[in-house]
């Protein structure tokens, strides 16, 4: 029979735990060899601990000890309590153990009816199997994984109502570490809230937001919708908020991509107008295929646009869409160019002069655009393919 058990006394910050574990290690070494047993740990080591006033406590429970308590529960020798369940079954238990394990059970036992020397108590609201796992845990902290999994929600409630924090920790831990499913998450969330388990509740909400469409069509959701419409509203709002945050992030990423493309167009424009691209061939020839790729990703597209611009016969005010695009790129270049006197990019000086007359509003608009284009490149970090060729003009 598989039995999981929790050492309910181990505390991370408890120096006695470390000492006990060390002691255990030493004894297992000595039993396997001729190494003499180490001397007793000096008692002054306890005094050096963080809690000098606390008495040293042994906190490692041996399996044999748990087995003894498990046996006491299962065999019920000397039992003096009948626990009656809702489905008219009963369990035998020891009032002293129940009282020590749960202050609530202690009170119930004190007020119980005694018949033929046996105290009779009731644990209402849950069926026999859950109570069996619950009481067994009170004795030995042992449980069968299958039964625990099947009854974990009832056990969470029992541990909360009967004030058994060790069991509550186990239930919460098991749910958080993998027993939470799309089917049970809504029930778990409601129980986590009423049983004061804020982290579990937070994890549930996060799961609902992540798998909203699936979870909002489960049985659990339908029941909750009728019983607790405020919770449904809250979960919908959480989902909407998270979703709009996601959309906003996508929008920003998309925007950044556009600015980065503009930056690359500016670099390619300089490269075409100053050096001329050797890869895609001279202006008067057909554009070569990209057998050898030019280092400037925007080069080929821009070269085609420049060629179109110089040959366009479309006679519409302001030019065709392609020409308009070219004008905008030239103007953006000019806004970013720091050497208009020696610059070979067409219209660079023309736009620089035009800038002298532009309104403050236009100036601010251009400055914002330039800073976004430059920042998109800078955001790639110092190890991006090429160093920035532009400096910001103001
Ligand atoms: Zn090129
Ligand atoms: Zn055109
Ligand atoms: Zn220029």
Architecture overview:
Residues 253-351 form the TAZ-type domain. Residues 28-54 are annotated as: Disordered. One of its GO terms (molecular function) is zinc ion binding. There is one protein chain. This protein has 394 residues and is mainly alpha-helical. It folds into three domains: 1-61, no CATH class; 63-172, Potassium Channel Kv1.1, Chain A (2-Layer Sandwich); 254-378, CREB-binding Protein, Chain A (Up-down Bundle). 60% of the residues lie in helices and 5% in strands. Residues 5-33 and 44-49 have low confidence and may be disordered. The site of one zinc ion (ZN) has 7 residues, from loops. The site of one zinc ion has 7 residues, from loops.
The helix-strand sequence is EHHHEEHHEEHEHHHHHHHHHHH
Helix content: 55-70%
Largest sheet report: 4 strands, mixed
Distance between the termini: 78 Å
Which spans have pLDDT < 50 for at least 5 consecutive residues?
A: 5-33, 44-49
Backbone shape: rod-shaped
* Number of E-type strands: 6
Please, what is the CATH homologous superfamily of the largest domain? Answer: TAZ domain
Q: Catalogue the ligands.
A: zinc ion
Please state roughly what percent of the residues sit in beta strands, choosing from under 5%, 5-15%, 15-25%, 25-35%, 35-45% or over 45%.
Answer: 5-15%
Oligomer kind: single chain
Structural class assignment: mainly alpha
Number of helices: 17
Pfam family, one: zf-TAZ
Keywords: Metal-binding, Ubl conjugation pathway, Zinc, Zinc-finger
Organism: Rubroshorea leprosula
GO molecular function, one term: calmodulin binding
